[in-house]
């Protein structure tokens, strides 16, 4: 029996090999090189614990401007995609009620991510599929600066969809499965 995969190591590998390596996010490479991406594992059986940890991470970012972004890796809860989406909505509402709207943006990733209107096996879904459920806190000001210097940012989703289509579902699924290991 093999050792279980470390969720943070798998997430770092996913960021480096997929997000940066395939330029899914053209801004991630700079932050990885600057070591300004924070990785936090939230081991929680209850989603409410994850919501509290999300707030704690907002407070951490408030006091640590050197951390541009945080990936909150959710282990132990929110494995079901529909439950994940429900709690993502709660997380966004919580951030807004705590005054974080416009300060931090919350991006979402899940092993079973499916865009509305897409087939479950569509390669496009892999732009938001990750080894574990994740909430990605991004500083709005940093994102705005990056977008200001990037030509044609509106084309990023279409470019990514074409890239995922070229790779194909089988290859993308195998890559994600390898990162998850013995999940």
Topology, pairings included?
Layout: H1 7-20, H2 28-33, E1 37-43, H3 47-63, E2 69-75, H4 81-97, E3 104-109, E4 134-139, H5 140-148, H6 156-167, H7 169-180
Parallel strand pairs: 1-2
Antiparallel strand pairs: 2-4, 3-4
| Sheet/helix structural class | alpha+beta
Strands of the largest sheet, in order across it? 1-2-4-3
Helix content: 40-55%
Distance linking N and C termini: 13 Å
Protein name: DUF1415 domain-containing protein
Pfam families: DUF1415
What this model shows, in words?
This protein has 183 residues and is of the alpha+beta class. It has one domain (7-180). Helices cover 48% and strands 14% of the residues. A four-stranded mixed sheet has the order 1-2-4-3, with helices on both faces. Strand 1 (37-43), helix 3 (47-63) and strand 2 (69-75) form a beta-alpha-beta unit. Helix 3 crosses helix 4 (81-97). The chain is globular, with a radius of gyration of 16 Å. The two termini are 13 Å apart. The mean pLDDT is 93.
Q: What's this, in brief?
A:
The chain has 183 residues and is α+β, with helices and mostly antiparallel strands.
Observed structural traits:
DUF1415 domain-containing protein; DUF1415; 4 strands; 183 residues; 7 helices; four-stranded mixed beta sheet
